[in-house]
Amino acid sequence: MSVPADSRIRELRVSAYRVPTDAAETDGTLSWGATTLILVELDAANQTGIGYTYADASLAALINGHLRASVEGQDALAIGQINERLWSSVRNLGRSGLAACAISAIDTALWDLKARLLNLPLAQLLGLRRDRVAVYGSGGFINYDNARLSDQLASWVEEGGCSWIKMKVSADAVHEARRVQIARAAVGDAGLFIDANGAHSPRSAIAFARRIEEQQVSWFEEPVSSDDVAGLHQVRQALDASGQNMDVAAGEYGYTADDFRHLLEHQAVDVLQADVTRCGGVTGFMQAAALCDAFHLPLSAHCAPALHLHLCCAAPRLRHQEWFHDHVRLESMLFEGVPQLLHGHITPDLTQPGHGLRLRRADAQRYAA
């Protein structure tokens, strides 16, 4: 392994792509018809590292106008130093939300660039622990009719070999109980997960969990808002007391290590989720993994499966990766090198340096925002 004589970052480029969904989609608290990806590219020593986040196209202006100066001209191998500059620069802007998403895209591009400069797969650079990652199929949007709900969930079991399937639910307990029953029939003995996206209060979440007890749902994601740490703890305590084997999961809106620490210290979750596109990139995701290790709790990667794959291969206590319908479709449209689902797992290509993703520039251009 040789280190380039000059690893200074020559240029940062940012672009935005807005890709329509294949149909309108609704979860417990939001509806949407398109997904916007913000791409960061970093050049050094004839190599290019890429990272991305899912946010609004306005993020490109923040990266171009505010964060660029903390990156260009810096040593691509000194990721810690660049990170300190980036996080310090957004102190008065507010670290969470858009600033964290922007830094996430840059940090991921830095790690990809470093691995490419060293001619190493990113998983090996981070410390390979496993050579494949289990995934769970994720979709089941609330606005789907019963036939589409059944077909989508069943396909991940029958064709994808997934051991677990996740669907969206709203706060309408009667309607959602029927949908969960339909989902259980569709997936057979596979693990059934539900995601309320914070639609419930603690009391209604507990009541709903009891209403669907016969369907043996084993995962309740964001039963209440992830900002309501006490409410998550309340739901978790009630489910434990009732003897239901149902994990409470949250963390997809964790932007900093402190966000994850608060969830863990308050015993708010059985499984912590982290999203590389929001939590500070590769650096932040691996911090979340280290916190899970310290608290002896499992970690699950949220969305963006192609971008998470190498990180998941290196993270301690990893349980699984979300195989989210929207992002699987979008990543395959915009990038080469995306993983393929086989027998419920995805596997990195360890013959390629970095995370192995390459932009399909001509294909992406039609979605430029």
Strand element count: 14
Shape: globular
Major sheet details: 8 strands, parallel, barrel
Number of structural domains: 2
Average pLDDT rating: 97
Give the fraction of residues assigned to helices.
Answer: 25-40%
And the CATH topology of the largest domain? TIM Barrel
CATH architectural group of the largest domain: Alpha-Beta Barrel
Kindly estimate the percentage of residues that lie in beta strands according to DSSP.
15-25%
How far apart the termini lie comes to: 39 Å
How are helices and strands ordered from N to C?
EEEHHHHEHEHEHEHEHEHEHEHEEEH
Low-confidence stretches: none
By CATH's scheme, which homologous superfamily of the largest domain applies? Enolase-like C-terminal domain
The tally of helices reads 13
* Rg, alpha carbons: 20 Å
Q: Look at the helices and sheets and give the structural class.
A: alpha/beta
